[in-house]
Specification:
Layout lengths: L1 H15 L6 E6 L5 E8 L6 E5 L3 E4 L10 E3 L4 E5 L6 E6 L4 E6 L12 E3 L1 H11 L3 H6 L4 E3 L7 E6 L5 E7 L2 E6 L7 E2 L4 H12 L8 H19 L7 H11 L6 E8 L4 E6 L2 E8 L12 E4 L11 E2 L2 H14 L1 H4 L4 H9 L5 E2 L5
Parallel strand pairs: 9-10
Antiparallel strand pairs: 1-2, 1-14, 2-15, 3-6, 3-18, 4-5, 4-20, 6-7, 7-8, 8-11, 11-12, 12-13, 15-16, 16-17, 18-19
Helix pairs in contact: 1-9, 4-5, 7-9
């Protein structure tokens, strides 16, 4: 239980300092191609691109009074991680589901009830492990919630290969969805969706309503992305390139560390970083997600040509990332104790192949 506490502490400290402007959106063309764009803004861009496998048994790390539970992953996925393996900021699974998170200071998670609870980032990994569609993610709310023991206040944008898109927010302790007709713009930044949508309507109507600097920044990015989606004619420069141009338009100077474009149809992930502007790409069907395969990762700054460029994951590589991020962020340097860094680096060792096969 002590190690569980320290893992929780580390994730909370990481995300509690991450109140930075991030932007996500989904763009579709007339041929039903679907891409999902994401800017990650933070003081450091260190990170791992991680291969997560199917048929793995995992047990939640969660603080009391929550009760840990175990699940088996149905799908493999590729995720972007800064807090160590199994605690991603976002990613895409082999079923075509994309989940990404952003800071939302207004978020309030549900109180304890008879559902299982997961902390913020492990909730993302669970959805990539177990959900094939946006509908699956939403349905999981019947048995699963983001735990009230979580510290980082987040909301989520999710999309799947059918073109279904939803925002998921926890406001006043309840899941709040925008989907279908309730989602006029498939965009999310750092304000509640309704706040950003109202901001856009007022700005488009040239009203003189005043907003805080935080809303101006966040909902301003929402508005810019929404306008660019409306303006795209579906032709050149192509859907992925245009998605990157949207991410460039809403980037926040040097704090935008990662820009990621998920092509859900082709199951490819393209990204660039603040320190390496070369766009790199991976295709999910090039990887072996079977549980017996090697645990693989690369540094996010690498330019992989194939799965052969990935390295075998280990405790040492996990710890090196955690240690590097902690030492690169001033607040974390003196706030995350050594035992916390060690505990989260060891957590993936508890993940084992399951006898259950999907």
């Amino acid at each position: 239980m002590k190690s569980s506490y320290f893992i929780f502490l580390l994730i909370s400290l990481f995300l509690a300092t991450a109140a930075k402007p991030c932007t996500t959106f989904v763009l579709k063309d007339k041929n039903d191609n679907i891409v999902f764009g994401r800017n990650f803004d933070f003081p450091t861009g260190m990170g791992h691109v991680i291969i997560n496998k199917r048929n793995q048994s995992k047990t939640a790390f969660i603080r009391p009074p929550e009760i840990p539970f175990t699940w088996t992953s149905k799908f493999g996925s590729i995720t972007f991680n800064q807090n160590g393996k199994e605690f991603p900021y976002g990613g895409m699974n082999e079923a075509g589901l994309v989940v990404e998170q952003m800071w939302l200071q207004e978020a309030q998670y549900p109180p304890q009830d008879d559902r299982h609870g997961l902390t913020e980032l492990q909730w993302i990994q669970y959805q990539l492990d177990c959900s094939a569609t946006v509908a699956d993610v939403i349905e999981s709310n019947q048995n699963l919630r983001v735990s009230f023991t979580s510290v980082a206040t987040l909301h989520f944008l999710v999309a799947d290969k059918t073109g279904d898109v939803a925002t998921i927010e926890y406001l006043d302790g309840k899941m709040v969805l925008h989907r279908g007709a309730d989602l006029p713009y498939a965009v999310l930044a750092n304000c509640p969706y309704d706040v950003s949508n109202e901001y856009k309507q007022n700005r488009d109507a040239n009203t003189e309503k005043a907003y805080t600097n935080w809303i101006e920044n966040s909902s301003g990015r929402f508005t810019t992305a929404a306008h660019m989606i409306d303006e795209w004619n579906g032709a050149e420069p192509g859907i992925e390139d245009y998605a990157f141009s949207i991410l460039d338009a809403v980037a926040q100077e040097n704090s935008t560390q990662w820009s990621i474009v998920y092509n859900i149809n082709s199951q490819t992930i393209a990204w660039k970083t603040n320190s390496n502007q070369k766009i790199r790409a991976l295709q999910l069907d090039h990887f072996d997600f079977s549980c017996e395969s090697a645990d693989l990762y690369i540094e996010i700054e690498q330019t992989p040509a194939s799965p052969d460029d990935f390295r075998v994951f280990s405790y040492d590589t996990n710890y090196e990332l955690i240690e590097g991020v902690c030492n690169a962020v001033e607040f974390l340097k003196n706030s995350v104790p050594p035992e916390a860094r060690i505990a989260i680096a060891h957590y993936p060792e508890s993940v084992i192949c399951s006898e259950k096969h999907w």
